[in-house]
Amino acid sequence: MSRIPTNSLRLMTIVFLKIFPAVNAELQKWEAKAEQIPNKELRTQALNSIHSKQFHCLGGAVFSLLAKDKWKEALRFIVAYQTISDYLDNLCDRSTSLDPDDFELLHKAMEDALSPENDCKNYYQLRKEQDDGSYLKDLVRTCQDVLAKVEEPILINVQLEDLETMYQALQIHKHVKVNERIPRLTTWFNENREKTPTLRWYEFAAATGSTLGIFCLISYALSDCMTKELAEEIYHSYFPYMQGLHILLDYYIDQKEDQEEGDLNFCSFYENEQELKERLVYFIKQTDEKIQTLPHLSFHKMVYRGLVGLYLGDDKIKTLQDEEKIKKTLLDYSGMTARFFHWNTKMYYRFNKNHQVG
Fold it and tell me: What radius of gyration, in Å, describes the C-alpha atoms of the chain?
């Protein structure tokens, strides 16, 4: 695939005919490995993360198109890295530990996955569950194998490290004991306020929780067109606004579910639905402005507009207050491309009732 799609119809055709089948094939391999995990708790969380968060891989794999002829390698990385992310999220969120040191060691796997020279560790050392049959190490090594094929990794190392470090910190702070979460997150924000002076603490946290910038950097690097200047442009185009929009939309549709589960939801910190709507519109406008300097601009516009259409097409939105007003406003600001993806998402869910986002 040497040409990067420039319109929605071509993108959707490639996604449905090539990308989604390739993602599903990769996920089936990881699911088969997960089924062989000896420890019951680790096996349960690995399988649950694949089954309930499959759409994260499907969506992220769109970035593999930026790798052009090496799209299959990029896709292999994206599926493995996102699978690590979703698995560790389950281990921190739905499993047996509230230990921040445990969470930090677990997330060393995501750091090692971006560093082909690093040896794998015993990521489970600080928890009682130990034996995963090398499932997590195999995921890490798959990522390392792909990154070893990048010709000049030094061009993206600084940006990858910064995005991963912030992601790791978020996962630690938001999964500790309930009464410690907000103090830790606000302290962390204050220590990094200069990075995102226009954001509130919960918006900064949301912006650090996306893997889109990492996928974009690595896919371009695999296409052998990476430069130091492009790496900087990608970083500042995706963080904080594109990534923040991504995660705020994810949290937006999960509000009722998170309330029932007692999970932290960043959208709950807005004063009312009007403020939430205004800030989401702000993120849309800022995203559109920040991506203007990127090559393949039409592709990146489709990404953020696709995010809006994708999340607003999820059935979960029907459980929310004022959802029709907010949906109409966000789709109006995102244009016909977002409406196209919105319609396609609704059709996808209609024919795939078991699929979920988030």
Answer: 19
Which region holds residue 131: left if phi is over 0, alpha if psi is between -120 and 50, else beta? beta
The model's pTM:
0.94
**Closest C-alpha among 244, 246, 234 to residue 205:** 244
What's the gap between Cα 25 and its chain centre? 20
Distances (CA, A) of 58 to 79, 310, 328, 333, 355: 8, 11, 25, 25, 11
Chain-centroid distance of CA 254 in Å reads 15
Q: Tally Cβ neighbours within 10 Å of residue 135.
A: 23
Rounded Cα–Cα distance for residues 300 and 296 (Å): 7
pLDDT of residue 3: 82
Which H or E run includes 293?
none
249 closest CA partner among 336, 351, 333, 159: 333
φ, ψ for residue 127, nearest 5 deg: -135, 160
Q: What is the DSSP string of 184-240?
A: HHHHHHHHTGGG-TTS-HHHHHHHHT--HHHHHHHHHHHTT---HHHHHHHHHHIII
Token pair for 66: 């930026």
- Is residue 52 pLDDT above 90, yes or no? no
Q: Nearest to residue 249, comparing CAs of 175, 168, 341, 176?
A: 341
